[in-house]
Design a protein that fits this description.
This protein is α+β, with helices and mostly antiparallel strands. It has nine helices and 14 strands. Strands 1, 2, 3, 4, 11, 12, 13 and 14 form an eight-stranded mixed sheet that branches. A six-stranded mixed sheet has the order 7-6-8-5-9-10, sandwiched between helices. Strand 12 and strand 13 (289-298) form a beta hairpin.
């Protein structure tokens, strides 16, 4: 089923409004307050839309999150049945400390077409290649780099890899250094990291490493519109995490998810900048108006662009 084009502007408005709410807390050292501001606004705006929406990725389960919890119904209850994944504030530390790269993010698909991701880690890999068996989670770092370089008719030293700068990635980073690959290390925000492979202007060829599972699904929703490659595998550290995954329908804990197993059919993705970063610029205010910049994709409409909007505060 095709998602109506009218939802494009509606969801851009939602992430823009949520971004604006967090904007007022930039540099205030209050990441909890900044997140709450975005959550409250996003939920309020979602409930204005004529749809029967269900949160499949949100702020956590009902016992953890009073708003935008997994399973919460949003919208007017009239209209199409949609699965919704949200990260009202991706990069709470960025807003709290006035650092670049904070986003407000939403992904929407038809009912049952978006994988519900538990609040756990995910091993991920993405690259701008559509052919199979070039990159794979089960390949070594060296094989992934050599395969990708060959497919792009490049030398490994001409490739750039984006990796979250974490102690858990020491081995990956050391392997990439040995291969003389250029590194782009990011401190947070692995939705944006995974998406930087979509366009040459970001100068990133491959994204790999362990990050949040929900963020992996959000990134996959956009990558699907670009016909890029993405794989993810959840990492479960204890029985509690596995029990939560079972409740979401995940039975095979070692499964390697291909892109079409994470999201299928039509989808819309929006990521609005709060603070300016590599992907999009942040909120700008002029008197009683604000300007926002949003990366939007709509698969069936073949829409993949960054748009600027100006609205009254």
């Amino acid at each position: 089923m095709i998602i109506d084009k009218r939802f494009q502007s509606l969801f851009v408005n939602i992430t823009s409004r949520a971004a604006l709410s967090s904007y007022f807390l930039i540099g205030k050292k209050d990441k909890i307050g900044a997140d709450k501001a975005a959550v409250d606004t996003m939920r309020n705006e979602l409930n204005k839309i004529e749809m029967n929406g269900k949160i499949v990725i949100g702020e956590g389960e009902l016992d953890e999150a009073p708003m935008l919890y997994i399973g919460e119904n949003v919208g007017t209850k009239n209209g199409p049945a949609l699965d919704i994944a949200v990260d009202p504030l991706e990069g709470t530390n960025f807003v709290a400390n006035n650092l670049p790269g904070a986003l407000s993010v939403i992904a929407v698909a038809n009912k049952s077409n978006l994988l519900g991701a538990p609040e756990t880690y995910m091993d991920k890999i993405s690259a701008n290649c559509s052919e199979p068996n070039i990159i794979d989670l089960d390949f070594s770092v060296k094989k992934n780099i050599y395969n990708l370089a060959e497919s792009k008719n490049q030398k490994p030293e001409n490739l750039t890899a984006c990796v979250l700068d974490r102690p858990r990635h020491k081995k990956i980073i050391n392997e990439l250094k040995k291969l003389n690959v250029k590194l782009k290390l990011i401190s947070d925000g692995d939705v944006a990291g995974a998406l930087m492979i979509t366009d040459k202007r970001y100068s990133v060829d491959i994204f790999l490493g362990i990050g949040g599972g929900p963020e992996g699904v959000l990134a996959a929703a956009a990558l699907d519109a670009y016909n890029c490659h993405f794989q993810g595998r959840f990492i479960f550290n204890n029985d509690k995490e596995k029990d939560r995954a079972k409740k979401m329908g995940i039975i095979d804990f070692d499964k390697k998810y291909e892109l079409n197993e994470i999201i299928s059919g039509d989808s819309i993705f929006c990521a609005t900048g709060i603070t300016s970063g590599d992907l999009v610029s942040g909120i700008k205010i002029n008197e009683n108006k604000f300007t926002s910049e949003t990366l939007i994709t709509h698969k069936s409409a073949d829409l993949k662009e960054i748009i600027k909007t100006e609205q009254i505060i």
